[in-house]
Amino acid sequence: MPRLAISPEFPRELGALDQPVRRDVVVSVRRFMQNVAGAPHPERVRGSRDPRIATLRLADRHRGVVVKQRDVYWLLTVLPDAEAWAYAQRYRFSVNTALGVVEMWDAAALDQVEPSVRRAAEASPARLFFNTCDTDMMELGIGRRFLPLVRQITDRMMLEALEPLLPPTQYAPLAALARGESMAGAWRELDSCRAVAPTRDPVDPEDFAAALLRSPDRAFFVGSPRELNHVLDAPGWCLFLHPAQHRLSRWESYEQPILVTGGAGTGKTLIALHRSAFLAKHAGGRILLVTFSQGLSADLSIRLDLLIEDETARKRVEVGNVDRLAQRIVAEAEGRPPRLVGAAELTALWRETESDHSPAFLLREWEQVVLAQNLQTLEEYLGAPRPGRGVELTGPERTEIWRAVEHVTGQLRERGKRTLLQLAAEAAALLSQTTGDLLEETAPRREPYRHIVVDEAQDLHPTQWRLLRAAVPHAHDDLFIVGDPHQRIFDARVALCSVGIEAIQRRLQVSYRLPQEILAWGVRLRGGGPADGLVDGAEELYGFHATRHGHRPVVRAYDSPEEELTGLVTQVGQWVEEGVPPREIGVAARTAGLVRDARSALRELGVRVTTFHGMKGLELRRVAVIGVADGIVPPLDSLTPAGEDPSARAHDLQRERGLLYVACTRAGELLYVSYSGRASPFLPT
Ligand SMILES: Nc1ncnc2c1ncn2[C@@H]1O[C@H](COP(=O)(O)OP(=O)(O)OP(=O)(O)O)[C@@H](O)[C@H]1O
């Protein structure tokens, strides 16, 4: 029986065919797999550059293209006959000698450009890789087919021009060397193309079938017709992860907590989903997949249903948000749901304290210093550091603030109400209490989960982290965390080590959602500079890049808000006319008023209109961000007055930048930004 592996392109090409052809193709592939009567057989292609390539007749005038070795068939695509033959003649395949993964390249195109590379080399004595010997090149997996070409490359521009024609595993180490990196740097770059952990077995460049097994990003082996249906029906992200994503989410076991950081669209949420699915399938115990808002957790839950087919495994993963978790733990302990205090009532309580400081200042001090460090007494508060708070406080001032905190917490207690952060703190305390006989050497604890996977980690408060830490035992594979400090939209700045989570960090650098033009503009908008939180010290956006190019963001200035709204309606109307489904278009504004105006202006078109906060976690084809004007982005009332606390104000500005960055980086295709009056100071010039 043939063993069949499907490439990521195959389901896409299949989806583009007419329904009757598609049906015939699926029937033929099933027959081929089962080796039954009427199954198509591989036919050699005249003029092909690779002897292992063949075609299978899968439907009337349609062929699949396969690479065959022994009983293994890698099904690459399905195309009309002539196109399938042309495809089979263009491409060549090899095994990367360093990593043992499959390589594929457009040999026809490469043959065509080679003479011009040679001519350019004859005209210039410069050679980009003159100081890397052949042995080193071979150690980096540079194949025999490519080495003579590589030797002709005169400069970085020529190398970059060749990028689309080279397999990524050939280009990556060369690009690193060209940037001036050492052999070790080039090897690291190459190693990032590896999807599965290396084994002791030496790489056999002739064993293409083994290479396919090492390339799960390129080939999915199907063992049964049911699996085949799954591969053909499930969305691509369920099956094919890029190498770094695959490696991170399917790593057998982590001794320590893992923190994966990466810019917008690098696949962090996908990794969190796949890690949860992997744990559900291969590890024991209950799993919590958690994020900070209910809307996002609902979306995660739906996507997890798609990812985990097995019902029992799916049931082992609970998807939720941290506030809900805290509420549930407290409710279980107290026997009834806790009552929450509203924002207005809380402000009134702070006002009652008649403190010299504003209610907003006191609230921040309580949340970001007292609750963040779990301070229980005045003495602890007097001696506590106040990171992120710019105004120094004297001892008497701290004492006065502590009295205010005591007043507010006392009042809340009397009223039987709490804030969400108080609930998180109480839930953490409840979980940390040991139960059972304290004289026993190991007192039983009450962690409700064996594994916790955290998405959007940048927005969790230290108290929430303490809750999560307490909800899972200190053991291998306890916490798997993904986040992006540059996308923080709330005031939570926490280094994980300060809440008892000693995480090992892994970085993702490639955005698969954004075209380079939107990405580069977004990085300038975000400030390009470091962001603090999650890791000790600052996280840079350096090295963050995209895999494709597209349109530059369009920034439109209008004279009045009315004209801006008219411009928006015209723009969105044009997108709909161009055939973009309304559900793939998003409009965002910073204030509720602007959202209302845009919603009523666009009512007929049925597109999603939301606040910047509401854009978190979404993915859209085209996005319009409106009202990006001075005084609106950032809104003045969201900033701490500079006189009150300059450092808090600087953090507010970073948070507001982060918000705009989040809204703009939802666009996978086109981004339109508009304002009336003066532009927001955040807009790149
Ligand atoms: N392996 C993949 N297969 C298919 N699509 C992918 C893959 N990896 C990333 N993408 C594309 O990139 C998008 C971004 O993925 P994801 O939402 O996981 O990124 P993220 O890092 O969590 O983004 P953000 O931080 O901006 O919310 C996906 O929705 C998908 O369009």
TrEMBL record:
<dbReference type="GO" id="GO:0003677">
    <property type="term" value="F:DNA binding"/>
</dbReference>
<keyword id="KW-0067">ATP-binding</keyword>
<dbReference type="Pfam" id="PF13361">
    <property type="entry name" value="UvrD_C"/>
</dbReference>
<feature type="binding site">
    <location>
        <begin position="262"/>
        <end position="269"/>
    </location>
    <ligand>
        <name>ATP</name>
    </ligand>
</feature>
<dbReference type="InterPro" id="IPR014016">
    <property type="entry name" value="UvrD-like_ATP-bd"/>
</dbReference>
<dbReference type="GO" id="GO:0005524">
    <property type="term" value="F:ATP binding"/>
</dbReference>
<dbReference type="InterPro" id="IPR000212">
    <property type="entry name" value="DNA_helicase_UvrD/REP"/>
</dbReference>
<dbReference type="Pfam" id="PF00580">
    <property type="entry name" value="UvrD-helicase"/>
</dbReference>
<keyword id="KW-0347">Helicase</keyword>
<dbReference type="GO" id="GO:0016787">
    <property type="term" value="F:hydrolase activity"/>
</dbReference>
<keyword id="KW-0378">Hydrolase</keyword>
<keyword id="KW-0413">Isomerase</keyword>
<keyword id="KW-0547">Nucleotide-binding</keyword>
<dbReference type="InterPro" id="IPR014017">
    <property type="entry name" value="DNA_helicase_UvrD-like_C"/>
</dbReference>
<dbReference type="GO" id="GO:0043138">
    <property type="term" value="F:3'-5' DNA helicase activity"/>
</dbReference>
<dbReference type="GO" id="GO:0000725">
    <property type="term" value="P:recombinational repair"/>
</dbReference>
<protein>
    <recommendedName>
        <fullName>DNA 3'-5' helicase</fullName>
        <ecNumber>5.6.2.4</ecNumber>
    </recommendedName>
</protein>
<feature type="domain" description="UvrD-like helicase ATP-binding">
    <location>
        <begin position="241"/>
        <end position="526"/>
    </location>
</feature>
<dbReference type="InterPro" id="IPR027417">
    <property type="entry name" value="P-loop_NTPase"/>
</dbReference>
